[in-house]
Design a protein that fits this description.
Elements (H helix, E strand, L loop, with lengths): L1 H21 L16 H27 L6 H10 L1 H19 L2
Helix pairs in contact: 1-2, 1-4, 2-4, 3-4
Length: 103
């Protein structure tokens, strides 16, 4: 489950980062508040938020369960305070490697 969630989070993060860096996301800004927002925004914004929060909680849980890491305080603080970027790095550097070593 963590691998699937990690790939999904990575896809969402990369698509949003490319969209913001290229200016593509700006065309979907809407004026007049949430009631005038298009249906895509009304579905996409909460879905993206749930994805980010859910994966962040999943990586924090993984960090707490696995106590064998060096520099636990530094990793824990970075996961908590630098959450969006740190959980992506933690997934690829720790969780993905650990799951693939089991195969």
């Amino acid at each position: 489950m963590k691998i699937v969630a990690g790939f999904w989070y990575t896809l969402v993060f990369v698509v949003l980062a490319i969209g913001f860096l290229t200016g593509t996301v700006q065309q979907y800004y809407y004026v007049g508040g949430w009631t005038n927002a298009p249906l895509l925004a009304k579905i996409g914004i909460p879905l993206t938020f749930i994805t980010f929060i859910g994966f962040w909680i999943m990586m924090l849980e993984d960090f707490i369960e696995n106590k064998t890491k060096q520099h636990r305080v530094l990793i824990g603080l970075s996961l908590f305070f630098l959450h969006w970027i740190a959980i992506l790095v933690y997934f690829w550097a720790v969780v993905y490697r650990r799951e693939n070593q089991g195969n």
